[in-house]
Structure formats: structure tokens, C-alpha cells
Specification:
This protein is an alpha/beta fold. Helices cover 36% and strands 24% of the residues. The protein has 3 domains: 242 residues, 4-Layer Sandwich (Glutamine Phosphoribosylpyrophosphate, subunit 1, domain 1); 199 residues, 3-Layer(aba) Sandwich (Rossmann fold), CATH 3.40.50.10490; 141 residues, Glucose-6-phosphate isomerase like protein, domain 1 (Rossmann fold), CATH 3.40.50. The longest helix is centred in the last third of the chain and has 22 residues. Bound molecules: fructose -6-phosphate. Fructose -6-phosphate binds next to α9 and α16.
Amino acid sequence: MCGIVGAISDRDVVPVLIEGLKRLEYRGYDSSGIAVLSEGQMRRVRRTGRVAEMAAAAEAEDLHAGLGIGHTRWATHGGVTEANAHPHISRGELALVHNGIIENHEAQRERLTALGYGFESQTDTEVIGHLIHHHMSQGLDLLTALQTTTRELTGAYAVAVVSRAQPDRMVCARMGCPLLIGLGEGENMIASDVSALVQVTRRVVFMDEGQTALLTRDSVSLFNEQDREIEYEVHLSDVSLASLELGPYRHFMQKEIHEQPSALADTLEAVIDAGQFCHSMFGAKAEAILGEIEGVQILACGTSHYAGLTARYWIEAIAGLPCSVEIASEYRYREAYANPRHLIVTISQSGETLDTLEALKYAKALGHPHSLAICNVPESAIPRASELILYTRAGAEIGVASTKAFTTQLAALFQLTCVLAKQRGRLSASAEEEYLDQLRFLPGSVQHALNLEPQIMAWAEHFATKDNALFLGRGLHYPIAMEGALKLKEISYIHAEGYPAGELKHGPLALVDSEMPVVVIAPNDSLLEKLKSNTQEVRARGGELFIFADQDSCFEESEGVHVIRTPRHAGLLSPIVHTIPVQLLAYHTALSRGTDVDKPRNLAKAVTVE
Ligand code: F6R
């Protein structure tokens, strides 16, 4: 999704803007631009394509200034053109960058056209700049004009504005899209996320919904929805520069796949150190809330939704609580039945996914009093809107395809399950010890699965030549089959579907022929024999099988049957271990096909629009 960066300083801010935009590239974008106020003139460079091309153009134009804003655009309204790229300039006077969607832009466009404003782009954004310009022409200062404008907008936005009329300041506003302020020495900045600023400062202020801010070189003022100045809290970000660098890896996705043993160890550190499953890791009110709920409603999107689907098996079987899992974008628009005794659990890597955030707000409006967020980004919107929080400690995830966030979400959800079970007297001391042991071994088992990479690379060569693939799993591993299919389709652009293996004969078997590779996730669990019958159904139709089987699953290689042995069965945590091979298969297939692994076409990292 779009990314915003802005800076006001005694020094030249152009390198700060460019570096910030490069660090926001991972969010997904198709054009970029910067605008600076230099010697009283508004100067701008915009390009479609990579930030590097825009940066080269900025250098060629010798752009330098102490005040500027920058943007990476992920097209929503209007095609991928230079004219639609941000910043947008109103009458040469003010420049603006925007993330989000203005829903009433057509009505505002008509109003502004009647006022004599012309439009150079097809974006919804341009109306914001003209509205601010219009209010300034009526005598308002930049901040008041922005505050007045925000009251005339419906939709979601994070905006930053600079004006020739007040060259000593930058103003910004947030509603529904992330925006934070970075505090420097003799300089201040804004950005969509902290990764854009860590090169300059770790001291950040998270803006809340409806707030506006005024930044000068040496001051920051924050205002609430009623435009009253308010105090703010300064946070020290723990995102490290190293976590944002590639190091020896070719892609962030590859790096993040390989970081999973340590990401899991970090996420599990508190429970392993405590030597028990303890409600306190979810927050101060967790004991009362988790103790009184009678069911769980999980809301999430994409890969995070698959984590929820996996957790349902655990929560119902181990904690004995009913658990529903729903795609957030569906839930938020349906007349759902609300049971106030059911805990709303949102799962989100970014914590900014608009559908998940809105589904959470909707659930509260329906009468769900209690919510828990499982999230990877501290202080992001979803945990801030939740009563209880468990942060996964995967570290920054830059690759668009989610990998380490998913496995750490599963680890967090397993902990939630055990806490719920323990509170209900459903976790004996020996079971608790056994599960803790499994968690202790988990990073090692995941490392073992990573060691399968060379074998998986050989399979990937084969997959790279195919147009379709099926992924099969049963029980706990059915969501992992879906996750494997999602990974493959999003980064290699091969059409792939994940199915519960028992469902094959109810339709998808019709697709199976010698051109259809079928990936099977085959742990040595109670459904193994049933799964073996399903694989025979595939083989009998000429389908080629690629089986990830536990060491003790007893699958043999034969013609059309390829087997890679995963570590010994990891019990209830097996879905986490079995995720690694399907991630590696997708990664290496995409590599063979030469796609842009970290920034697959049409996709964005944090989906902050509908
Ligand atoms: C797939 C992927 C997406 C996200 C989804 C939700 O690899 O990354 O499907 O899982 O957009 O994002 P979060 O977890 O940030 O809410």
C-alpha cells in the first residue's frame, strides 16, 4: 500500500526522503515521488516504476531542500501514470501526499470545479490539496486549513502537506491509515511506518485516529479531533536497521523463511522462561476476560486467516471452546450473530489491515465487549483498538508474502489455546509439561525442515514449468495446504488451490491429470491412512504426487510419487513444521520463474484500503 515520508530539518532532507521511500518499498507500490520547498519554490519529481529511478531523476534535477514530502503509490483511483503519482500540487502553492481512499471525492471534485479548480490527475487525492488551498485562500493558516478539510472528507487517509505560504512547517493528519512522527535533533519527520525512519531516529510518536500534527524543525504539536493541543507519549522503537537489511540473502522472503527458528524462539521466550502457560502474557485484564469467555470468534485476512483456521482445531480440541473463524472482509459486511461471551481474536502481521480493523470495530458495535489482538507490529492500529494483546516477535517482515509472521502467529495461538485450556481445568500438569517440551523443540524442528531446501529446490524446477498445482492436507494440515497454495500463487503466479484431501472426489479430482502436480502434506497423525487413500485416487488418474511426509509416515517413492521426509512428527505443532517446506517450494519456484519475489505484481504488504 502507499507509503508516506516527510522531513523538516536544517540539513538537506532529500536523502532522508529517498532512503525512507526505499525502506517503504516493501509495502507495495507502482510509482513514487517527492516534493520539496527550495528557496521559496515548490519542486517535484515523480516516476512510475522503482524508487531508484525517481531518485536518479531527483539527483539529475539537483534537488536539495530542508523541507519535503515523499510517497510510494499503490494505484487505487486512476492508472499507474506519472500524473497520478504523488505528491500532488495545488496551484503551485502546496504539495500533498496521501495514503487511503477519499470516498466523497466526486462530490468534492464538483464543488472545487465550481470554485475554479482544475484537475491534473484521476486520483481521489487531488481534492484534498485543492480544499486546503481553498481554505488558505480564505485566510486560514496551513494547519487550520488542513483541520477544516479533514472535516469535509469521508474515507480513510494519512496526509502530509507543505505550503509555500508557511515554509517553516509541515502538517499532517491521520484517519484510518497509519502515520507516525519521528523526533530528531533539530529535525522532525513523519512516516507510514517506523522502518522509514530508523536510519534517522528511534524516538517516535504514534498518531491516533482523527489527530492532526504540526511539525517544525524543533517542535512537534499534536491535536485531537476537536483541534485541541494534547500531550503525546514518545516511544523508543526496537526495530533494528539489521532487520531491514538483506544481509547475505537474495530476497527478504528467503531471509525471513530462514529467520523462523529465531523468530519462534523469541515469540516463545516468555512462556519457556516462565515454564508454564500463563494468562499474564496477554495483558493485565487477561485472567478475568479469558476466564469468563465461552467461545472464540477469530477475524483475519489472507495468511493470518489460515493461522486462525489452524487454531480452531487446537481451541476446540484442547480448550474445549467453540471457535469460528471468518475472513474479516466478509464478517464486517454481514449481519453476524454476536455472542457477547465470545472473545474476538484478530490476527494481523501488520496490525493495519483495514478489513481486520473494521471487522474488529464492527464486532464491538455488535456487542462483543472483549477482544484480543495477535499482531507483529507494536502500537499498530489493531492492537491499539484491542483490550488484550499478544505480540508475535517475528521482527520486521519485509517480503510481501508472509512467512515468519505466520508461523509465529501459530505459536502465539497455541499459547492462547493452552492458557484457555488451563483456566478451564483441561490441561493436566503432564500435558502442560509435554506441550512446553514440544515448544522448546520447535525452533530445532523448524531448522531441520529448513535443511530440506536442496531437495525442495529440485522439485521447484519441475513446478516452475506448470500452470496449476493442487495442495492437499487433512485436519490441522488442511489450512497449511491452503497456505502453501496461496504462497505459490502469489509469488510464482502459478494457479494453485488448497483442498482438504477428503474433498477431492467431490469435484477437484476432475482436474487431475499428468500435468497437475499434487502436493500432499502427510504428517504421521490419526488421518494418515485416510490421506494415503486420497493419494491413491490422485495416482490412479495419472496425477504426479509430491509428498511432504514425516520421517515415520511410511510413504515410499515410486513412479509419479516423490517424497521428501520432514522431521519426526511434531505432534500438535506439526502444522508449524510443515509450513516450512511449502514456503520453500513457493520461493524456489518463483525464483526459477524469475518473478519479483519480494514484491509480487499487484500486491501490497499492508492492505490499508478496502
Ligand atoms: C500472504 C499475505 C497476506 C496477508 C494479509 C493479511 O502472504 O501476506 O495474505 O496475510 O494481507 O495481512 P496482515 O496479517 O498484515 O493483517
